[in-house]
Amino acid sequence: MAGALIGIPLLPLLGSALLLLAGKRLGERGSAAVGVGSVLLAALLTAWVIAGFVAGGEPYTVTLGQWFSVAGLTVTPGLHFDGLAAVMTGVITGVGLLIHWYSAAYMAGEEGYSRYFGYLNLFVAAMLVLVLADNFLLLYLGWEGVGLCSYLLIGFWYREPANGYAARKAFVVTRVGDVALAVALFMLVGQFGTLHIETVVDRAWQQTPGTHWLALLLLIGAVGKSAQLPLQTWLPDAMAGPTPVSALIHAATMVTAGVYLIARSHELFLMAPPVMDLVALVGGLTLFLAACSALVQTDLKRILAYSTISQIGYMFFALGTGAFSAAVFHLMTHAFFKALLFLAAGQVILSLHHEQDIRRMGGLARPMPFSLACFAIGGAALAALPLTAGFYSKDAILMNGYALAGGTPAWFLALAGALVTALYSARMVLRVFFGEAVTRPDPDRRPALVVPLAVLSVLSLAGALIPRPLGDFFADLGRGGVPETVHIAVLAMPWLGLAMGLGFWRYGGAVRDRWQDSALAAWWRRGWGFDTAYQWLLIRPFIGLARANRDDIADGLTAAVTASGRAANAGLSALQNGRIRWYAAFIAAGAILTIALVGR
Amino acid sequence: MTDQALMALPVSHGLIFAAALFCVGLAGVLIRRNVIFMLMSLELMLNGAAFAFVLAGAVHGNADGQVMFVLILTLAAAEIAVALALVVHLFHWRRSLDMDALDEVRD
Amino acid sequence: MQALFYITAIIALAAAARVVTGVNAVHALLHLIVTLLAVALLFFMLGAPFAAALEIIIYAGAIMVLMVFVIMMLNQGDAAVENERLWLSGRLWWGPAALAAILLAETSYLVLAGGGSGVEPRPVDGPAVGRALYGPYLLAVELASILLMAALVGAFHLSRKLRGRGRTQP
Question: Are C76 and C23 in the same domain?
């Protein structure tokens, strides 16, 4: 079992090494075989390990050996497998496998095919290290690894400068969170003398004074990686990468790393109630703001990007209210239906020859019924219509959130967000598949594209039935009762949103047009102006500073030394003008001075 | 040579005369561009110094002052011999006695 | 006798001033000779007849003759006088004159501050100087002779090169 556990991240890593070092010789088929095969093996291994875990029921750790021992800090990282890790590895390898498979067809004929799979495999390896690590340092390694892969894959089509810009933006913005996480690790070493997650979590119950700060820093780290307020601006731009990448990294897995981090260290957060409230508030605000932005986007992938931010906001809200298992549940179902939506969107985009603007789509229901079905299922799960996977998880979040924290502002934001979510889901599906046909699609029905979509559709519908072997990983918090009216409101919101969507679609043409042209819509479309604000508050002052410091102010000091030397040289050179009389005058002046000094 | 031929004069006035002669010579060296005039001014400076020596020797009543004078004389003779040779050389080379034109020393 | 000293000193300084300010080289040379003669007279008054004699014979005699030769050789004429007048323009005077004046003021101040009393100069005759020269100062005399030798060789060398150059570059 131990070897199998190590094999899970090792297989994609080996695949990545093979692809990146010898990708050119493998060719397209070979690259796809290595890339998909390594993840397939990892997924099978994961299934076996999970089966063993469910049968045995006990969490276990495989120590990898000592990494380093310095100044009293000994790091012996290992892989830890428990209920949370089981859910995460299952999602990563399962969804990862489907997306790899889909990519094999989607990316066919692209330049850098093997490079793509190399990065993707490396990402899966890093993500698995992240969720399996029993040590914060190893977790951080995976954390940075997925950040690197995200950067590499957003900028995959690097010939387009905008893609490079988006990649840099994602890297730099998440870096803000990463720095906070690094500081949190330093604090952990300072407070507990160890980075072992279980030890830290066990000692967290002893309530050390710095726990609040620690939790806050971990939250900032999670916020950066998971694109939550106020570090959410990178994710919409990250859609510059290939669509399967958006599905895997920027929807299903990497962006949920922040959720995983908080869930993994939830005992620490429970020791810091104000930070918990902050997590809930961040989640509530993010989910509502992002949902509003998703409502007015015109780019299909950006709708999904904002929707991702919004759904992760739900997870944060759940974490903040203490409904940890609901958060992990939603993480899983979201991975299914968001991957489905992205991949289906990818198929649509591919069929329309890389057209992403929904204003130039419409009437695709007839030529592309399969895509419509995928979108309908995914949208229904996103909107949390009953019987879909998303319904159960979102219901769990809202109900548990109310039961645990009551009707806080964040809860009402989450409730309103449910309405907006349904509304934009309806808008997206209606806009793309109904109405007048604007373009003639060229449907792409390769089996490698279709099969993963079919599997994900099933998962999006029935994913809630998959047992989550969390056991008693999350200590159950005492919960109050939920009034019947609240339950009805939660159930009614998606239907209300759907009805509004249909209503606007059918009867509100004029209202819709006026709304789309309004200033408020424009503001929402720009993501509530966060980018503009950062541009003015941070980037411009920084660039101004950099401009002012172009000649390095600190260098001025050393430059002054040379400049004074040069000035003295110039002065002395001017003195040495070759005129005898001039020299004599200086001798005389020297004599005068000497006499003046001596004769005093 | 009787005592009457000598006089009681303030030594300071004699020294000031020596200094004045020296300074006039110095001013000449600094002002003139013609090398001949510079050499003459140099002679004035040497004479100022020599006078101070002789005066001091007379005041102390020993021969050292005059010995220094003899040495200064030697110096002056040697200097003027070389300098005048150089002047002739310079004139043939440059057709000018302008010292300021001779700034090749700079390089 | 004191009056004689001051008169001679003033003559010497006046002639020196004419040397420095003169524009005609020959006139300046004559003024220089006047200065030298005046200094020789002062030596005599100080009871240094040997020095006075040397001053007249070697300075006013030999060295000045040398200078006369050179001036005659270079024979610049009226153009040179005009040139000198041009070079002696007013602005150039101030700096060097101020330097010299300051130096004079400093030394005078030092001399006067030293409180020089009226001391009777004691005569030192030629034989005494000769004994000193060939007694304790023998080494200095030898050095001076080497200096003169070097000057002789130098002057000869320079004039020889000049002859060589003169042939190739008339």
Answer: yes
**ipTM of the complex in this document:** 0.86
Q: What residue of B is the nearest CA neighbor of C148?
A: B78
Q: Judge contact between B21 and C16, C-beta under 8 A.
A: yes
Shared domain for C69 and C138, answered yes or no, is: no
Are C87 and C159 in the same domain? no
Same domain, C99 and C149: no
Chains that touch A (3 or more CB pairs under 8 A): B, C
Residue ranges in chain B modelled with pLDDT below 50? 1-5
> Mind listing the pLDDT tens digit for each residue in A171-222?
888 888 899 999 988 888 888 788 888 888 777 777 667 788 888 888 888 8
Residues of chain B contacting A581 with CB distance shorter than 8 Å: 29-33, 38, 99-100
Q: Which residues of A touch C103 (CB under 8 A)?
A: 588, 591-592, 595
pLDDT at B45: 92
pTM: 0.66
Q: Does domain B12-102 have CATH number 3.40.50.300?
A: no
For residue A475, the SS3 value is: coil
Range of the domain at C101: 2-122
Chain A residues whose beta carbon lies within 8 Å of the beta carbon of residue B38: 580-581
Interchain contact B101–C (C-beta under 8 A): no
Q: Are residues C135 and C95 in the same domain?
A: no
DSSP of A98-153, one letter per residue? HHHHHHHHHTTT-TTHHHHHHHHHHHHHHHHHHHHBSBHHHHHHHHHHHHHHHHHH
**Do A402 and A486 contact (CB within 8 A), yes or no?**
yes
Q: Across the interface, do B102 and A580 touch by the CB < 8 Å criterion?
A: yes
